[in-house]
Design goal:
heterodimer, A: 270 residues, mainly alpha, three-stranded mixed β-sheet, 65% helix, disordered N terminus, B: 187 residues
Chain lengths: 270, 187
């Protein structure tokens, strides 16, 4: 009972709480003008909505896609700068950006089949406190990978691999229909394994070639600084993913140092 | 001025993008300021502003002729801002020094501030942010509109589409809960 009374006495006064809430949100802010690029982002989407409405009459309505975040102005500017450095007309490259509150690492992907679209996914904290070099490295990586994987040889290889995968699937179905699953399954599995291994190897090779391209566009200093910043943000910079070299490998190739070299230097300075 | 804006609205409702650009020019800075005050993050506020204008573009054909444009736009903006902030769980993310400076002081005048003062304010806001994070979504919405947008209970009811009585009771419950949470934080 006493404890209850004490806790009631210790509760914030109503006026105090109101003041703290007002202080939290602050006074009304003066007008905050946005740069023209911000209008361009809206304008671009107006066109999308208008054309979508026109098509609605004769087009099958598919389930709604997950809403993408608008690309912040600073990011658009950085992307335009890198694209111009790479000699890619801004009309041919498109940046798509998504916030992923539950992820911990930024991810960038470049398309290899359709339009040159770079998909950047950022965790919430990275979206607000990302360094310029870090962002440049991510955008340049996406653009460079897209450029490398859109070369004819890379595309043909990938199409061949997709064809092989389909062939393996068909072989499995045919064998199944002829009551020969024991023959079909090992063949299909072996083909799938070969395809997966080749795909992985090709994606890694593209990633390394793209890193060379990125260094040419950004310069080795900013590229290294950005890669190190990404490694510092990552929980596992040495972890490899399928078709993706680890950050440690990329740093080794681009900067000629390991992740630990920077960690040691930071420790010494500290 | 109003007649001119009415014409712009009329044209924009008929999908005239140039007219809509002029509406953007006239209102985006106010909308951005309101969004920044609510969410404290410049990038997110810009995203909210752009999103609100897109929603307004879609809703313009249903806009009632003769009504003022800005209050209508601000209602859309507040609703959208609250949705985005809940979706992105902004209340779970600690406030940074940059967030506080961006949402508090006009650019260029940061030099006047004492570093200690700012850090103290960040710490104080962090306490409130942690308390807000523990409220229910509805309670957070009414608190944000009451203290982050200075709306009356009637206006809040209009923005959220709730009866005024519901707004009042949720606001009272939110205040009571906050009082307890803030006092617990202090202990």
């Amino acid at each position: 009972m006493n404890e209850h009374n004490i806790s009631q006495n210790k509760q914030a006064e109503p006026g105090d709480m109101e003041q703290r809430l007002s202080a939290y949100y602050g006074p009304p802010l003066p007008e905050q003008s946005l740069p023209p690029a911000s209008w361009h982002a809206v304008h671009h989407r107006l066109g999308v909505h208008a054309s979508a409405r026109c098509r609605r009459g004769f087009r099958l309505r598919l389930p709604r896609k997950r809403l993408r975040a608008f690309v912040p102005t600073a990011m658009q500017d950085a992307f335009a700068r890198i694209a111009s450095e790479a000699g890619i007309p801004s009309t041919q490259a498109r940046l798509r950006y998504r916030l992923a509150p539950r992820s911990h690492e930024p991810v960038v992907r470049g398309s290899w089949l359709a339009r040159r679209t770079i998909r950047l996914t950022l965790p919430l904290d990275a979206a607000t406190n990302m360094e310029r070099d870090e962002l440049d490295v991510l955008l340049a990586t996406g653009l460079a990978r897209s450029t490398c994987s859109r070369k004819l040889a890379s595309r043909l290889t990938r199409l061949l691999l997709v064809g092989l995968m389909l062939l393996a699937g068909i072989a499995l179905i045919v064998c199944w229909m002829h009551h020969l699953p024991l023959v079909g399954a090992p063949v299909a599995l072996a083909l799938w394994a070969v395809v997966a291994w080749r795909w992985h190897a090709q994606a890694r090779s593209i990633a390394f070639r793209a890193d060379s391209l990125m260094v040419r566009w950004l310069g080795r200093g900013p590229a290294c600084s950005g890669l190190h910043a990404l490694a510092a943000r990552s929980r596992a910079p040495r972890r490899r993913r399928w078709g993706e070299p680890s950050l440690a490998e990329r740093i080794e190739r681009v900067c000629g140092t390991g992740v630990e070299a920077r960690e040691n230097r930071l420790t010494l300075v500290g | 001025m109003t007649t001119c804006e009415d014409t712009l609205i009329e044209r924009a409702a008929h999908r005239d993008q140039e007219a809509f650009r002029q509406l953007w020019e006239a209102h985006h800075a106010t909308a951005m300021a309101a969004a920044l005050r609510l969410c404290h993050q410049r990038a997110l506020a810009e995203e909210i502003t752009q999103g609100a204008f897109l929603l307004a573009w879609r809703g313009l054909p249903r806009f009632k002729k003769g009504c003022p444009f800005r209050p209508w736009l601000m209602r859309i903006l507040y609703r959208h801002a609250l949705d985005v902030m809940e979706k992105q769980r902004t209340y779970l993310r600690p406030l940074s020094l940059d967030d506080v400076l961006a949402s508090e002081v006009p650019t260029g005048s940061h030099d006047h501030l004492e570093q200690g003062d700012v850090q103290e304010r960040v710490a104080e806001r962090e306490v409130v942010r942690r308390a807000l994070a523990q409220l229910s979504t509805e309670q957070r919405r009414v608190i944000a509109l009451r203290y982050g947008a200075d709306l009356t209970e009637v206006d809040i009811a209009q923005v959220l589409g709730w009866p005024v009585g519901t707004v009042k009771s949720r606001l009272n419950r939110a205040r009571a809960r906050l009082r307890v949470l803030l006092s617990e934080e202090e202990r």
